[in-house]
Amino acid sequence: MSIQRPTLDDLTRTGQSLGLQLAAPLLSEYAAILEAVWQDYDRLDQLPTPPMVQRYPRSPGSVPTPEDNRHNAWYVRTEVNGAVSGKLTGKRVALKDNICLAGVPMMNGSSTLHGYVPDIDATVATRVLDAGGQILGKAHCEFFCVSGSSHTNATGPVQNPRNPGHSTGGSSSGCAALISAGEVDLGIGTDQGGSVRIPAAYSGIYGMKPTHGLIPYTGIMPIEMTLDHAGIMSANVADNALLLEVLAGADGLDPRQDRQVPTQAYTQALGKGCAGLRIALVREGFGHANSEADVDAAVRRAAALFESLGAKVEEISIPMHAMGHAIWTPIAVEGTTQLLQGYNYGSNWKGLYVQSLMNAQQGWQSQAEHFPHDLKTCLLAGEYAYRRFGGQYYAKAQNAARILRAAYDQHLQDFDMLLMPTVPLKAPKLPPADASASEWVQRALEMNANTAPFDVTGHPAISIPCGLAAGLPVGMMLVGRDYDEATLYQAAHAFEQLIDWESLIS
Predict the structure, then answer these.
(1) What beta strand segments (E) does 384-429 contain?
(2) DSSP letters of 90-158?
């Protein structure tokens, strides 16, 4: 089979987009020269793509009725049963709807991807099934996972089960709602600016963003390769640690991972208590311009309770933390825009490419008018900055990331973990469908001052519920050393077992 050759007009337009002005005789000569290139494309096109093996039967599932989807948390309900026994036997799992599950539709929160059906299982899906887990379906997320609130999904907002009408947090909104409502035990989400930890905080559940690369991202629709983290959401700490045992480790297909990713038996950290742990309360994690006083107070009170459990808590200052969000922003907006231009994978990357997803994304510009305000403004900023400054601010931010990491690591030599509010505010009310662009974007991006910096540095971080303020959950974030998730689980489990967080009311 031969690929379609460009016409001379095609080559003229392509050359003009590159700043090349090609006279007709030279253009014709170039066309002849390029025939050898296209012949290699022809040969590659003839090479068969190896089929992906599906070891566990499944059906495409179905979109639940509104009566069976009270919080608009499900996109598709299905039932994929894994191995007859394993660590996850009896556990019900939801996958965020940017995670490929072969034969089951995936829309990643967007109208433009609606109708796409993956042809592979993501590594995390395979590992769940191999461990005996049951995947019950795909959970709604925000439009292309850009929002930290739960109002941007193309089908409508995801409601917070604890207080309908309020945000569940995003972008792993559906997983949070399903766990909070008790419909599943576990959710696998993704986190590029806080998208596991923010909904955990808003919804009163546990959300772990592990060390960058600890969980393979293979078969998950990316946003920005250096920020992409797969993470775990759960109703309790023990289930969270158990799922990390199943998911952690290299798969040989994700270049975000080292070839030898260090893993641990995370559940063995449970029950050890936190006596002797050294916890640093980070001053700059409090008192943001939009911080709510009752949230800051609840987290400080919870930090003091760690002392009653035998930990040593000391307040410290990390001035660079206040710059973390500014470092994250160019990486997020420019990186996201450039990756989307490359149909979600771009080039210069040795990972597994999901070609069916790339095909589904091709030509997204023709549907960009349907994008929500938060995604449109992100793309405008990313495209302008990249073109105007040639990617130099993206580069400066990536270089500054090492300074930011060093600032945290300096204190993690003396302390076992850092502590701060997960988000500076409680779950706000969802904006109306006709909200202004300003209100829409503010609600989508207002909450990640503390979460985003650790996507840049890659440190592991867990959000744990630590109290109620005005009837809504407050999240406390613990941040640890690379690959030291076990110590975070140790502290989180001690707090969970000995403190009734719902009795801590502000």
Answers:
(1) 417-421
(2) T-EEEEETTB--TTS---TT-STTTT---SS--HHHHHHHHTT-EEEEEE---GGG--SSS---TT-PP
Q: What are the φ and ψ backbone dihedral angles of 29, each rounded to 5 degrees?
A: -65, -40
Residue type at position 186: L
Domain with CATH 3.90.1300.10 in the chain: 66-503
Tell the residue number behind the tokens 């995670």, with chain if given.
99
What is the spatial distance between Cα 331 and Cα 212, in angstroms, rounded to a whole number? 15
Residue 378, Ramachandran bin (φ over 0: left; ψ between -120 and 50: alpha; else beta): alpha
Report the DSSP pairing between strands 312-316 and 417-421. unpaired
Give CA angle at 223 (120, 340), nearest 5°.
Answer: 90
- Predicted pLDDT at 258: 85
Structure tokens, 487: 């110590």
Distance CA 380, CA 259 (A): 37
Structure tokens at 202: 């808003």
Does the pTM surpass 0.85? The reply is yes
* Domain 66-503, classified CATH 3.40.50.720, yes or no: no
Phi, psi torsion values for 261, nearest 5 degrees: -85, 120
Instruction: Convert the pLDDT of each residue in 104-159 to its tens digit.
Output: 999 999 999 999 999 999 999 999 999 999 999 999 999 999 999 999 999 999 99
For the packed helices 237-247 and 485-498, what is the interaxial angle rounded to 10 degrees?
Answer: 160
pLDDT of residue 1: 67
Strand-strand pairing, 278-282 and 417-421: parallel
For helices 24-45 and 8-17, give the axis angle rounded to 10 degrees: 100
Measured CA to CA, the distance from residue 386 to residue 338 in angstroms comes to 8
Residues identified as active-site: 96, 171, 195
Q: For residue 319, which amino acid is it? A: P
